[in-house]
Description:
- This protein is of the alpha+beta class.
- Helix content is 47%, strand content 22%.
- It has 30 helices and 34 strands.
Amino acid sequence: MRKTYHVDGMSCASCAAAVERILKKQDGIENAEVNLILNEVTITSKQKINTETCDRALQKAGFSLSEKEESHSETFAVEGMSCASCAASVERILSKFDDIQQASVNLVLNQVTISYTKRDFDAWKSAIAKAGFTLKENAVSSTCLLDIEGMSCASCSSSIERVLRKKEGIISADVNLVMNQATISYDHQKIKISEMIQAIEKAGFHAHIHKEEKTQTIKKDYESLRVYITLGIAAVLLYIGMSHMLGSFELPLPDIIYYKTHPFNFAFIQFILATIILILGSHFFTRGIKALIHKSPNMDTLVAVGTGSAYLYSLVSLIQIMQGNMHAVHTLYFESAGVVVALVQFGKHLESISKKKSTGAISALLQLRPDEATLLRDDKEITIQIDEINEGDLLVVKPGEHIPVDGIVVGTGANVDESMLTGESMPVKKQNGDALIQGTIDLDARMVMKCSATQENTTLSKIIQMVEEAQGKKAPIARIADRISLYFVPTVMLIAFIAGILWYIATKDFSFALTIFVSVLVIACPCALGLATPTAIMVGTGKAAQLGIFIKSGEALETASQIDTIVFDKTGTLTIGQPVVTDIATSKHEKEVLALAAALEQGSKHPLATAILKKAADEDIKIPSLAQIKTINGQGLEADYEGKKLFIGNKSDSTVSKQFQNQEEKYRKEGKTVVYLYLEDELLAIFAIADQLKSNAKEVVTQLRNQGIDVVMLTGDHKITAQAIAKQAGIEHVIAQVLPDQKGNQVQMLQQQGKKVAMVGDGINDAVALTQSEVGIAIGSGSDVALESADIVLMKDNLQDVLQAIRLSKAVIRNIHQNLFWAFFYNSLGIPIAAGVLHLFGGPLLSPVFAGGAMALSSVCVVSNALRLRNFK
């Protein structure tokens, strides 16, 4: 029988060995396996062991044994948190309870996951309440993605978020204006998706569960056709309506619709054209008026109220003309109503074209997925659908074909193009046993592969999901625009009404006041404001994906631009991760001693032996065969060679090795492992073995420091070895001899000094530290642990991509700042001009037609500025 117990008092590997040794001496215990990180021991015994007897035996050596308490984990909702400091406070308060093993707060979802041995919810809730937060029981969290139709500006997305967040059971709601989607986290025991959809419908929009549609060509073609038909009709309307407004120069019109000879016809043709345009653009009115009724006015409301007012006023003038008042022909605003709707609709069309370009990253990744694969069964090739592939199936990949799923090469390999996922242009040679990633391309040979992951579990599928989630989640900076847009539209409507009333009081000219009213409403549409952040994030994360850099959220993207400290793991991150022979000190011929060393090490799996064998292979040395190789525990290997004893290991005779004393001392100071080769008592050679620094590590560290970022190396290695590697890399701050479970604590200590920390590691033994840091960066790994633990995943094993990720994040945030500035600047400048401030001083008056054009242009400008990120080098 096997059972796991808790052990107190262990602090190092020798403690663990002592515990195992003591327990194995106890009656009935066959084996004892210690987990130093978890402070646990698993005991294998023939019968139930006497825990008290084992505990007394361990206490004599300074340890204690106890029954392991059963651990539970539960997630709760937390209200009142607004920042990382709040989250840290909640974690700190809960961690003080003896029964709580761990408390982990998710600030985005406003949740805390508590691992505990004894549940005392009331005590936890009371302690949290004293700090100003509210702990709620049973936050059973689920996530859904809804497609939303009818959004047109930041005010729309903000009003949907506000409606959803008011519903009981909604934990968080993020609406992406660019993707026309809502990502909702909710308690499925309290609210259903159908209820969310109803709430969105009541707010004046349409929603349905997201479906991945490959083709919407007919619908898109119809929408494009409608836009261009509307634009054509608007051009005719503008020509007719403005024909008599150019002073002494009048545009030629047929006599039957000339305003002087046939004023009613002149007005009626404009009424017909404007009505057709308003019908084609009826969505502005249905959505805008609905939003106004639900007290959530948006861009559609501004367009609907503004153009609707101009249309109705013109309709009154048409009736007056019918009744004989020919002067009313000068108070027609049909062209303003129709052309503004057409221009705004055309602007949204251009905007959607630009937005499609910003979503190109996901489209490109989806295109990497082949639809079919070739199954190898009984030496026959069968074409099947990707969804039919099972783990373990043998598949054939021919030159030029995409790898259908993740798998392993069986037999002969080929050169594979992985540039679509890694950004690395050079082909990768794949041999028997090498891993293959879905979507990469077989370049030059027929290959047989064994499936290791089905369609939904492939690396590519996880990356697509990760990029979609990143583009759906908002960065903290996006909240600025969201908060402003909540109050922006009502404020603009108020300004428009006040400006119109004041101008009417001043001029007694209702048509002039109406022009002011419509111009203010139309020019102030907050489209640019709503597009400023999500478009830049989408283009930025898409560009990153092309470079083999996968950023999991807008928050990670923004935070990466603010970090001031980067912590690098040593082994496998700064270094290659494999020991190599760096130096050989010998009085003999170097190849001769290397051949003898390799002869002794043949068959050994020790990392140092592997290093010597690799060196011999690189030098193309013929290795002699030795008989009766013996292992000397803790020292090395020994064999007979030409009647003499040949030995390799850590045995050192200082009197004999005096001739190599300087080299030996130098190697040790450099943190290298020293291996000795003896023939009888003669020291033939000293081999220096070390894990080498990556070729570009020093350059990357230098560039980071030049950007004002402090660089720290964190490792479990001995201090001397760590200092030696750090010196080579140009790193001044070194934290050595740290166990994997303590790395997170070291990152936390840096954070307590007020530093914003990014942790760079391999995503497996650094998982705790990656999660603890503000930004976790997993380098050279597409593993599940890396994808789950890190905020940024670098597909290439290239330190330069750490710099790329930081530079790109800064470029995206800079682009967002530019977009927000121009959006604010445009509205700040446009609203006063539309309200007639310049006209007060004899300046021009802004026509509603030009206001509509300017509004459409502002949105296109913001999106175009974001698209510049696609040129990031």
